[in-house]
Amino acid sequence: MSTVITPQEAWQKLQAGNERFVHGESQHPNQDALHRESLVNQQSPFAVIFGCSDSRLAAEIIFDLGLGDAFVVRTAGQVIDLSVLGSIEYSISVLGVPLIVVLGHDNCGAITATKEAVDSGDMPGGFLRNLVERITPSVLASRRDGGQDVNDFMVEHIKQTALRLVEASRTVSSAVERHEVSIVGLAYHLDEGRAELVNSIGAL
């Protein structure tokens, strides 16, 4: 499926939807029965949103989207694994999505757990350890640059995650090089509902 809008146009649509949400003017588009039926045999989302699993970070709500608008991938702390990479590559190569969004947020529990593990030297048990190990490089990088709190670490983790997508996936890096896909890193502020741009890769 070919891309129907440019990365720049996709980013503008997300910005507009988030502004509506921030100001309490959400339109709840593409949620009617007719639109639902039109999607039975096809989909053409304009963005893939890779965000944290936090219950306060529902992508379709904060960007005022509807059915078929976004291909959403979520893990705690927006931690990359092979399934995430495969899902994002699918959205690009099969669905023709022009924009990848890396979405983090204030007061992230996974990043808080990582900070506590780094500070104490005690790693958590179970599979939470895997999350902490993957976020630790972002916490350490932020501290080297003067970062002091969880929200500083969150912003750095967004940037590191966006870079890792390009480094880890030839599908992603090639699409960016061809100017077919751009990546935006967004920090979501829980109090005001705004998604703030913190970095970008590719033209916007």
TrEMBL record:
Which keywords belong to this entry? Lyase, Zinc
Q: Does the keyword Lyase apply?
A: yes
Name the chemical reaction catalysed here: hydrogencarbonate + H(+) = CO2 + H2O
The keyword Lyase belongs to this UniProt entry's keyword annotation: yes
Query: According to the lineage, what is the superkingdom?
Result: Bacteria
Q: Where is the signal peptide?
A: none
The similarity annotation says: Belongs to the beta-class carbonic anhydrase family.
Q: What is this protein called?
A: carbonic anhydrase
| Phylogenetic placement of the source organism | Bacteria, Bacillati, Actinomycetota, Actinomycetes, Micrococcales
